[in-house]
Amino acid sequence: MLLLAPALLYLVYTIGTFYSEQLKGSSGALFDLEVKLSLLLFPLFFSTIDLSVLGAGFFRKVLKSFVYGSLASSILLINKAIMSYFHTQDTSAFFYTNLSWMHHPSYLALFYTFSIAILLVWLLTTDHQNIFKRNLVIILIIHFELFVALLSSKAGTIGLVLTLILVG
User: What whole-number distance in Å separates Cα of residue 64 and Cα of residue 90?
Assistant: First the structure.
């Protein structure tokens, strides 16, 4: 029942829509419901799925995919920043909103911080038979830390420091 609490919150937002004076537009109530739709869909999805069907390694694969996606996005962003720098000769292409045109810099920094946490947990809980994998994980952690610094986000920096304290 606790899993459905966010869905109940979405119901409250839906009821609040009837009291809104502005329904449409980027600050309208319907857009707000659209943004918060995951509060309804994820609890319904996770309350109806049989997790034993997914298998033991499912969550490990999801976390690994998150790290791969974070790496792909960082490569895409740095390539765009390099192209922008060669076009404008402006070093601000490598910082804050100029670097993170896909997401707000704070969110993106927190995504990379979560990737760092995943990699640190793997590093601390796995026996390191394969030196190449261990070194690759260390390089990825440094890569994501540098990206958090380039994003110049206070929330991302605080999140990174807290992650390093809690996991390390």
Answer: 35
**Phi, psi for 158 (deg, rounded to 5):** -65, -45
* pLDDT tens-place string over residues 98-121: 888 878 899 999 999 999 999 999
Angle 105-125/131-151 helices, nearest 10 degrees?
Answer: 160
DSSP 8-state secondary structure symbol assigned to residue 128? -
What values do phi and psi take at 130, rounded to 5? -95, 105
Q: What number of helices (H) and strands (E) belong to the chain?
A: 9, 0
| CB contact set of 153 (below 8 Å; sequence gap of 6+) | 96, 105, 106, 108, 109
CB neighbours of residue 61 within 10 Å: 11
- Tokens read off for 145: 């830390």
**C-alpha 105 chain-centroid distance:** 11
Determine the Cα–Cα distance for residues 82 and 80; give it in Å rounded to an integer: 5
Residues sharing a CB contact under 8 Å with residue 113, sequence separation 6 or more, in sequence order: 144, 148, 156, 159, 160, 163
Tokens of 61: 């694969």
DSSP 103: S
Whole-model pTM: value is: 0.76
